[in-house]
Amino acid sequence: MKKFRSHFKFNKQEQSGIFFLLLLIVFVQVGYLFYKSMVLGKLNNTTISVNKDVQHQINILKQQKLQKETLRIFLFNPNFITDNKGYTLGMSLEEINRLHAFRAQNKFVNSIEEFQKVSLVSDSLLDVISPFFKFPDWVNTSLKNDKSFKIKTENYQKKDIVSVIKQDLNSAMASDLKIISGIGDKLSERIIKFRDKLGGFLVDEQLYDVYGLAPEVIEKALNKFTVIDKPTIIKININTCTVAELSKLVYFNYALSQNILRYREEKNGIQSFEELNKIEGFPSDKIDRISLYLLLKKEL
User: What is the reported pTM?
Assistant: First the structure.
């Protein structure tokens, strides 16, 4: 105990040193509190001024960015309007459901008038969206001869439409496609593999044929990508081709190709693409894309 107590025995000089050390600590603490309350307090209360010229430039850049991202409507087949596409075009839920119910009967809308008759859209909405309708080849002739259609198209083209610069879907790499929310490593590679099997996309809507791509993801992708450089293809004459030739088309397997040729023999030839809908197993929802690869020329 004596040794322990000896550690707490100080002479007068040592006691004075300890006193001044404690006093110095107190002064330092008081000085820090004063600095914190006076100097830092003034900094926190300082009003941040906005540079009006710089802010004006930022606002201009924001407006330019919004203009670049404005959606451009491309030609589309009205038979395949999805819920999301219909909402974007301004259609009501009832109008979309009427169209889907009509299509569920394996029927197709082949004119602007028929589209309105089925969906019951208003004349004002029809005038806006009908110039962008793209019907299959077998109805294109009747549309081109429709004078009212030509007038509507010409009038609409006179309006100012803000377009965006889109990347070519046929030259996009996997890393480019992955910038779209919902497209990762697997889906980007799947898109490229499907494109390679086709020999290149002919129309934007062929993205809907890629397995696993959700419609809302495709809508996002088509805001950034579009078919610019179309490939040159050799169309298959459906009235003279063999099963092997027909089954090379990515949309047909061997069994379906056999059914098509069997139907061709029974009917002594295929007169129109619409007949293909009668064949068992034929993907009717893809007929507008499939027809791009086929010819109807009969053998002489």
Answer: 0.46
